[in-house]
Amino acid sequence: MKRAVVVFSGGQDSTTCLVQALNQYDEVHCVTFDYGQRHREEIAVAASLAARLGAVAHKVLDVTLLNALAVSSLTRDNIPVPGYDPQASGLPSTFVPGRNILFLTLAAIYAYQVDAEAVITGVCETDFSGYPDCRDAFVKALNHAVALGMARDVRFETPLMWLNKAETWALADHWQALPLIREATLTCYNGIQGDGCGACAACHLRANGLQQYQQQPAAVMAQMKAKTGLA
Question: What pTM, to 2 d.p., does this model score?
Answer without folding.
Answer: 0.93
